[in-house]
Amino acid sequence: MDIQPYTSTETLAVGRPWLMSMLGIEANQTITLDLTAFDETLHWSEASKYQPERKLKSGIPLGKNATSGLYEPYAAVTNEVQTVTVTGGPTGGTFTLTYSGQTTAAIAYNATAAAVQTALEALSNVNPGDITVTGNAGGPYTLTFGGQYLGDNVAQLTATASLTGGSTPGVTVATTTAGGTATASDGTQKFAGFLFTEVSFYPSSTKAGAPLMVHGQIDVAKLPVAFDPADVPAGSNTQFVYKV
């Protein structure tokens, strides 16, 4: 019997870990970015006294604003946001959260946002990155869905409280932003392609030229922002092969 070893390789471009292969580079298009539409930290890093230019990250999904003709971050469907509020000023006790039939371990009445997120990520139906929790210790806590629930209209969590002290303490959950609804109607809701390379610009700049990648193989997990190809609407750019 002749047994041959199986090997697999990936080719990455320097500074572009999200690019699985060089396929598509020759298909880049020159575009103009509306720099005012991009957010610090999420899309670009601040300049320093040694490096005066800001750095716009490569791999950002883009859409074209039909009014201005400029390119902005792709406005995918909205991510669900829910708020968990501990009411009544308790001084002790715990509460639990239930999501789609799975219930967390007991959470302290004054837990930090990180502790609430850890409790949720321990559920069998929540992976790291699926729910990001922010807020002060003791709440209110803001739960933003992403990961496998990116752009989905998910079920609202429920809470069960075993709290002490205060005045009729309890825990309420509210959906502040329903997932699944397009965030724009100006053209940016239609996916056009990925920003192919880093773009440097000065803080006073409002526009910049850039290469748009419109054909290639993409490692979604390594993109600088969350992106779910399943949420790309019909009629958008389909010239990509994704590794999810």
Q: What is shown here, in short?
A:
By secondary structure, the protein is mainly β. The chain has 1 helix and 18 strands.
Distance between the termini: 36 Å
User: What about the largest sheet?
Assistant: 5 strands, antiparallel
Helix/sheet category: mainly beta
* Low-confidence blocks of residues: 8-12
Shape: elongated
Radius of gyration: 22 Å
Average predicted local confidence, pLDDT: 88
Total beta strands: 18
Strands ordered across the widest β-sheet: 1-16-14-4-5
User: Portion of residues in helices?
Assistant: under 10%
Strand content: 25-35%
Number of helical segments with 4 or more residues? 1
- SSE pattern, N- to C-terminal: EEEEEEEEEHEEEEEEEEE
Keywords for this structure?
single chain, 244 residues, mainly beta, five-stranded antiparallel β-sheet, four-stranded antiparallel β-sheet, 35% strand, elongated
Can you tell me about this structure?
The chain is mainly beta and 244 residues long. The protein is built from 1 helix and 18 strands. The protein has one helix spanning 113-121; strands spanning 29-34, 44-45, 54-56, 61-64, 71-73, 81-87, 92-99, 102-103, 107-108, 131-135, 141-145, 158-164, 170-177, 191-195, 199-201, 207-213, 216-219, 240-243. A 5-stranded antiparallel sheet has the order 1-16-14-4-5, with no helix packed on it. A 4-stranded antiparallel sheet has the order 10-11-6-13. Strand 10 (131-135) and strand 11 form a beta hairpin. The longest helix is centred in the middle third of the chain and has 9 residues, at 113-121.
